[in-house]
Amino acid sequence: MSYKAFVFFCLYIDLAKGLITSEIIASHNYPVEVHTVLTRDGYLLDAFRIPGSKFCQQSGPKPAVLFQHGMSASSDVFLLNGPQDSLAFMLADACFDVWLSNSRGTRYSRRHVSLDPSDEAFWRFSWHEIGTEDVAAFIDYILDTTKQRALHFLGHSQGCTTLVVLLSMRPEYNKLVKTAVLLAPAVFMRHTSTLSQTVFRSFIMAMPDKEFMYHNGVLNKLLSNVCGLFVARVFCTTFFLISNGKISKHLNTSVIPLIAATLPAGVSSRQPKHFIQLTDSGKFRPFDFGILRNLINYKSLEPPDYTLSNVRPLTPVHIFYSDDDSSTAKEDIQNFAARVPEVVMHRISTPGWHHTDFVHSMTVADVINKPVIEIFRSFERLSSPTFL
Ligand SMILES: *[C@@H]1O[C@H](CO)[C@@H](O)[C@H](O)[C@H]1NC(C)=O
């Protein structure tokens, strides 16, 4: 990037830094609602809902869709390609009831009935708890609010991890999920080779449970002057975008400043630590606390594997994956697919298709979004109306 482009980039970030999900939705003239959901363990999480679209002509009940974002992202990630190319807007246009969740610790979900984000105890969670508690609470809340019996699920990366954890740990949720569409699911991680697994690995593993990469958090406080803020954002954005050591050639570059303005949205250090453990063990299992605490928590020296044979939503699981994704490598995805009872595989063979391309590529509308909408629609066509 040239010096001039860099300065422009920084200014753009500054202009965009106030961006929040509800404003992004409203700025494109869609209705938006904010809902706060309470988990069993006391976290208060915000979900944004797009209940309609002027392009949806039919009346009657709209099937609900739950979106679950990846690590360090938030509900924003599904909107940044704009109204023509983002799945959330396209689904609203296609007469679905769109719900964008935010996991604990992200910029919209930093409240708890008794804990404060400045308490260490607030951050004692991984994507395990996001799955068993947060996703469960969102599903319960959405079905209760819409009076529907089941919903569609769309996850990207860690968003998929959390659903798989939920369905394996609390299998009673399977019957509440009509379709599960998993974009680049992070399950087995043996072949992952991203920066957090290599360059930053020992730094991450040495961290206690605490807030990691919040866009107004630790990094920005360290670099307290204005330029420091820019540097922190640029650093974090680059961190998010780099896959295979370079930024994807398919990326919609207009999205970069918007990513910088909204990411990273907040993560507990236990989340990347837990992923690194999966790379080391080659297994898909809960957090490894060390022998002593494993014995107390799991009654075994090592964490037990998640039971993937429990993952049985109402229809086969749809897995989208690519040959060139170094975050969720195809070998690991195939290993996962072989252990889930029923799957439909969608392979993206486009060379250089990276992890973030599933949400931010120039061709995402045709390659991902339209096929996903068709999966949801075909369920609705084939199922009896009693599901609504
Ligand atoms: C790229 O992103 C910009 C900014 O959101 C959006 O306006 C544009 O429609 C997007 N284009 C494609 C092809 O995704």
From TrEMBL:
Pfam families: Abhydro_lipase
GO MF annotations in UniProt: lipase activity; triacylglycerol lipase activity
Active site location: S157 (nucleophile), D325 (charge relay system), H355 (charge relay system)
Partial AB-hydrolase lipase domain residues: 21-82
Gene Ontology annotations of biological process type: insemination; lipid catabolic process; lipid metabolic process; mating
Top-level taxon of origin: Eukaryota
Keyword list, A-Z: Hydrolase, Lipid degradation, Lipid metabolism, Signal
GO cellular component terms, semicolon-separated: extracellular space
Record's signal peptide: 1-18
Record-stated family: Belongs to the AB hydrolase superfamily. Lipase family.
The protein's name in its UniProt record: Lipase
Organism, as annotated: Drosophila melanogaster
